[in-house]
Amino acid sequence: MDTIASLFSFITTPVSWVIVQFHSVYGKVFGPDTGWAWGLSIVSLVILIRICLIPLFVKQIKATRAMQTLQPEMKKIQERYKNDKQRQSEEMMKLYKESGTNPLSSCLPIVAQSPFFFALYHVLNGIATGSTIGVINDSLLASARKAHIFGAPLAAKFTDGSSKVEALGASLTDVRVVTAIMIVMMSASQFYTQRQLMTKNVDTTVKTPFMQQQKMLMYVFPVMFAVFGINFPVGVLVYWLTTNVWTMGQQMYVIRNNPTPGSTAQAAYLERLTKHVTQHEKTRSRGEKAIVKAIVSKGRDRNEFERTFINSLTKAGLVAQADGTVVKGESTVAVESEDGTTAAGAPRRQQPKRQTKAQRQSATAKAAEEDEPKITSLSKSDEPEDAKPAVAKKPAQQPGSGTRSKAQSGQRKGPQRPKSPSKK
Length: 424
Fold this sequence. Notes:
The protein is mainly alpha-helical and about 425 residues long. Helix content is about 60%, strand content about 5%. The chain is elongated and about 115 Å long.
């Protein structure tokens, strides 16, 4: 551990300086030697670090979603070049380059946070061993060694013996109870954070090995925190518990307001957005406009939740525009063009009512009667009997013309030659 600490010694002084500055503020309220002053200083350090890491967190979200989108293509590459690992790696790198994604981007917040973690561990280890480090001088060191959080010293560990714990002015039972509770809370928060990511913010339409890996990490990470947590000082446990709670809250906010397309979180978000938009007949915030704009730009590539959202706006007499705004249409509906974009102003096309077979036959017969020439007849009083035109008889059907009649019994099918008159 000394080798790792020496690698991050360049950041030990800034971390210790930040802790001391926060301690000087909280010390005036709670007292300089209390656990509240030193514990809140560590919590404030975590919050400051996580605020600085928000841009990396946003980049992590985009990278994770891009990786989820690429999973089908990656699976095809793995199946196509399963016997050629080198070609498989080349095609994977080509795919990453073309899409502009990086699989390591999802680990950026953890990687960026690790120097602060090791620096804080080194500072707390110095307090436990009674050695000054960074800007922490002898007076601050003595104050930190007196600080207890619920009866457990900042520098105490779960694995410490009774003699070492007594040297810090505490009992072994208090240290182990406090550290055990903090380890359980740390592991539980990590598990819940990963679980809500898998159950709410994952595209359920894509079944890939990436999802299986995420499910495995959901159980592996809490176990790792529990195993390594027994070797962490109480101050480091405070650090990790705070950062886990921050991550959980930050992720809950993202899942609620910017969910992954195709996830159950998106269905819930679009349901809420439909109620808000139909109630106010407009998009109220920049975030809502961005969501509506992204849905409209997808065209035919919308998922079922997004299509339901557009249809709900249509039923309410509203039309989503390409710039993310929503306008009210009068007796109009949103019509999708061939490219999938929606436009307002097209009247609703009425579908013709399907007729029965009897109705179609009667309509055809009526049309045929109208096409036949009508014969006007004179009344009996105006026209003599002999002046009435004779009713023309329907000419007999010529052989071979029209529909072929059924042959009588004893006759062969097809046109018959007329019989010659018999000679008497």
